[in-house]
Amino acid sequence: MASGPATVLPAGDLSCHPEGSCRRAPTKTRLGRTTHHSPPEAALPCRVEDRIVQRAILDVLQSTPEIRQTINVPTSFCAIPGEKRGVSKAIAAFAQAVKGGATHFVKSDIKNFFPNIPRGKVIGLIAQIVPEPEFIELLNRATVAEVKNLRELGDDKRYFVFDEKGRPQGFCLSPLLGNMLLHQFDVEMNKGDITCLRYLDDFLILGPNGKAVNAAFRRALKLLEEHGLEAYLPEKDPQKTKMGRIEEPFVYLGAEIHGKRIRPSGESQSKLRQQLTHMIQESLTFFQVEGFGQNHSLVQTLYDLSNKLKGWEDHYSFCNDNALWHSLDLDISTLVGDYLKHFVQQRNRLWSSGKKPWQKERRLLGIPLLVECKREPVTF
């Protein structure tokens, strides 16, 4: 078994040649537009070859029994291979802790977790488990690019897309590094009458009283400090951290928890409403355009709305506030009803024009016209 930390190599994108060697390649690209303002240029692992290499490395590491055992802590809920964990399981664990007697909580985040992961320390741990110098060198190159890119993003990370599990898309190795690093944190923070649930950089401490929870939070800060990491503090960062009794409302992993009532957070509800409204407004705008595409037709828009709602419903299936579901359903039905009224008005205008209204109506509906379908008729 190899010992000591692995050598940290210079940052740079990598891609594999057919012969198996690696070469350096540019790392910078431009983030896609996600707001009304164009984001600045930032470094991202954009090459397909690089992502293939990084994913292959991840598969090798996750198939190693010692690594799987290290990161597979019951109170860690993200990026655990072979385990169906996620937000719903974390919320279920919260409920179980409350049933077990937890009455107080502290919720916090680790500051700038991914960019500040001490990569050399984690790769040193991996090198002891996988004593293959060439593989460790490749891992070095792959992870240094990820961490460097995340650091360079800085505040521009708000433009970047995180998937439904909270992982930064395009950075598949960083969650593994984070879970490896915080293995001992997870173990130490779940001793005695304390439960600590961690979802990457987001952690929730639960205990039987305020004194025990405060002491556990201080212990968490010391454990993070050993890795050069910090957590947000309640007195300095009230938006990121909160402590109190379970009966007091707080937001955890996009869910608002108020005693035993759990619902999607207000921010998530607002975002859903905005997305649905935007989809409908976009369709109504294209209703006015001659020969608009089927992507904004009535049928396609209703289909997209349905898929959006199904995805949102699946993600928040653990919520138990039925009154909120009824309220949201009423709002959505009103939105869809107004949309259909606008469609009827536009249809009536088409038929009053007298210029092949049935063709335009079919386009509005999104039902293809046979005369416009691509054909290859037989010729004689």
Summarize this structure briefly:
It contains twelve helices and eleven strands. The N and C termini lie far apart (76 Å).
Model description:
The protein is of the alpha+beta class and 380 residues long. It has 12 helices and 11 strands. Strands 6-7-5-8 form a 4-stranded antiparallel β-sheet, with helices on both faces. A 3-stranded antiparallel β-sheet has the order 9-10-11. A hairpin with a 2-residue loop joins strand 6 and strand 7 (202-207). Helix 4 runs antiparallel to helix 5 (133-153), helix 9 packs antiparallel against helix 10 (298-315) and helix 9 runs parallel beside helix 11 (322-353). The longest helix has 32 residues, at 322-353. The protein is flat and about 75 Å long. The model is unreliable at 1-46 and 154-170 (pLDDT under 50).
Topology readout:
Elements: E1 13-16, E2 22-25, E3 28-29, E4 42-43, H1 48-62, H2 65-71, H3 87-99, E5 104-109, H4 119-129, H5 133-153, H6 174-181, H7 183-188, E6 195-199, E7 202-207, H8 210-225, E8 242-245, E9 250-252, E10 255-258, E11 261-264, H9 266-287, H10 298-315, H11 322-353, H12 357-365
Antiparallel strand pairs: 1-2, 3-4, 5-7, 5-8, 6-7, 9-10, 10-11
Helix pairs in contact: 1-5, 4-5, 4-6, 9-10, 9-11, 11-12
